[in-house]
Request: fold
Amino acid sequence: MHIHFIEEFDNKIDIILAKIKAFVDKNKSKEFIKQIEYLDSISGAGFLLAVTLMCEIGDFTALSKPKQIFAYFGIDPSVNESGNFKGSENKMSKRGTSIGRCVLYVIALASVRIKRNSVAVNPVLHE
Reply:
């Protein structure tokens, strides 16, 4: 019974992915779809992560500065200061989208990994 449910969910996931790919193929000229293709071209990103990230952002043109992108994803440092007190341990603010942070984390892990032949996927990021 459980195997049947898993197979049913796999089929439904495949149908949803096919609809997403059909939508992307149908709207190739749109800037949003071009941004998905740019993200998909990153080694280790993949189509589903690119679509997820773009759906979380919406449109890059709304975020004009890198600081805004960091704050949107909640990876900007939280400053803990008050009067004369200066906080020494700054952590991520985590104010932004948690799904976007998870996608960025997965892409970062995929970008710094080493292949089976001991060659880095992205030597610059691996260093």
Residues 71 and 96 are 6 Å apart (CA to CA). The beta strands are 81-82, 85-86.
